[in-house]
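$ fold --in a.seq
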Amino acid sequence: MSGPAGAADPAGGADRLKLFILAGEPSGDRIAADLVARLMRRVKLAFSGVGGHELEALGLRSLFPMSDLAVMGVSDVVLRLPLLLWRIEQTARAIRAAKPDIVVLVDSQDFSRLLARRLKQLRYQGKLILYVAPSVWARAPQRAARLRPLFEEVLAVLPFEPAVMQRLDGPPTSYVGHPALGERLARDVVERGPLVLLPGSRDGELRRHLALFRQVAAEMGGHAAVDGMVIPTLPSLHDRLTQAVADWSVPVRIVSERAARAEIYRQAVLALAVSGTVTLELALARVPMVVTYVLDPHQARIYDKHGRPPVSLPNIILGRPTVPELVQAAPDAAAMIGAVRALLDDKKARQDQIEAFGELSNLMETGETTFPRQDPADRILAHWDQRVLSAG
């Protein structure tokens, strides 16, 4: 990439892809950085956008802090609504000024949808790609068709999503896998090792889960199978979590270097994880887990309305209850402690999870027969090539 790192090149040129990429949370930042790295190996790339430390490591100067978009639940959104509305307008103006060939919006579904709609109002002529499909298969299937006028293509990270989007008349959708596929581990049951705690990364998740995880740590610290506690996290959260666990009754190691995660997962006896992309990462590393999530009141009403569907990615992808889920409207530390203890005491249950995760890994690697896995960079470049040809 020539010119200032991460900055759109106003000179453009038919041989230079001008990309605007937006990630609103850490899991999206990782996906976006993987895509940018792939594109850098293939073409001359000038990119701008919004992201976190992984995109910034590739040269991005983020338009504003990614943390402004990392919200979950109606209460968090309401608190930040004026800021979010301003960020939509600010981002739309930046895209209109930069005139990128392609805009890739990574997850952050509500923000991405509203931004895409605003760009259409402003008559943006470039390509709009949504990376990470919305969970229309879990709720609001009518949303799929509403996305068709907004996005040229959706890049899905779950193998069954292209077929679902096709059935629901959504935009063309391709399965492209997930960066965590590059970090798969082959491992067996660990008799004794660290208990890995993953309390989330958004502010609201940490507020709702840290006190519960503290109680789990206090109860499980003396279990025969547990050899210490560790929280893998982001560099931006290292100091906050270090302070949060300082007065816990058991020592907890805070690790923010991503390179260290593979060894942590290799040694782990078990993980307790807040539902999210990290459950897919754990499954591909074959770490047995208990998954939990404490809902805010609005989320709880929606969850009940839709019949309390599975929330963890391993259970969703495999289509069966492979890992225990504790989705709670009211915080219940005793239930978490019971689920963690039960799995620690049951070596066969941990082995069954590991075997199921091998099946999941194979499916994620290949995709489904009708929609095999593709390289996300190939999909982006296909749209760029079409634009260059049509311009000619």
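$ fold --in b.seq
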Amino acid sequence: MLKDYFAIAYGSLRKRFLRTSLTMLGIFIGIAAVVSLISLGQGLSDAINQQFASVGTDKVIVQGASPGFGPPGQTAAGKVTKDDLELVRRVPGVARAAGRLLKSATLEFADETRVEFLASLPHDPEDRDLVVEANGLKVQSGRMLKSSDNGKVLVGNNYAGTDDFKKPIVPGSKILLNGEQFDVVGVLKKIGSGRDDSIIMNEDDIRELIGEDEEYSAVFAQVGANENPSQVADRILRAMRKDRHQKEGFEDVTVSTSEELIASINTIIGVVQAVFVGIAAISLLVGGIGIMNTMYTSVMERTRDIGVMKAIGARNSDILWIFLLESGLLGMAGGAIGVLIGIALSTFVELIGQGIMGDVLKASFPWYLIVGALAFSFFVGALSGVFPARQASKLPPVEALRGD
């Protein structure tokens, strides 16, 4: 019986192809928007999680709090110093810790001048390994920077192209930073997250270049085996609060774990997705209203057919199911087209985005997204057809045969 319902519903939709196509417009626009936004958001979340997974979830980051994010009334940014680094190293549960400087400088190359970011590597080999591991630094060409390399640098992957300068910066190139000459010994592999424009230097070189003696931009700590990163982060914050004579909630530093950063990023992505999906849902609502209007028109046009079916023994429930399936198929057909458009759209955005953001922007198409989109579009269609289907099922046979 169900097979017959489908056959009748499909035949009716096929007979009114133009109207069916126009009715599906609102549905597949909405589904395309939902699929593309969710797939890009999920892909971005997966890529970020993979990046954090590659450096491990056992890292703790200590930074000075920005004005407005630290204690009430704070007007200057909090600072992390060499003394703070030694303090972090003494905290129970910390296996190793290293400081890092992140500063800006004027870069001159190929008769062009730009302001670029500098990032330091510690002198101590163990601390150096921690920073390299925590930031996923890998060499694409040339070699890794050594602690004994005075006046030498590594450059991010973006410098290997011609987007930033007229000619690429390669191993062996000479660049000027704040007027001082440095030799390039290697180019890093693409990292993403906006870090491919940074220049990596030894800590002593960057301190001499910018005239900074004590301050760090951040301190990276790795917790010991079988230690809980959140508990170690809490111990670090308590130790720094005591050392600085600050009350709880009035610290001028922030201490966060890799897991907390992942959770924060995923929350932000989820909120953005929800907002855009909510906007896309308006199109689905318009599509549902379109299906309802089409089904009411279909009932009016097929009044005599309904009368004939009832005259030969069709029950009200049979008529109801036929029209519900017809509206559901109308919604699902629009959903199928929307899924294909959504996949094509998000793949196109991925290709463009990878040229800008690297491997961070990826589209992800889990099976439950595709099945869920199709099921939801069928549900929207069937729901939109409830009232027209009830009206058709309750038509008296005699009146229906008259076609009034």
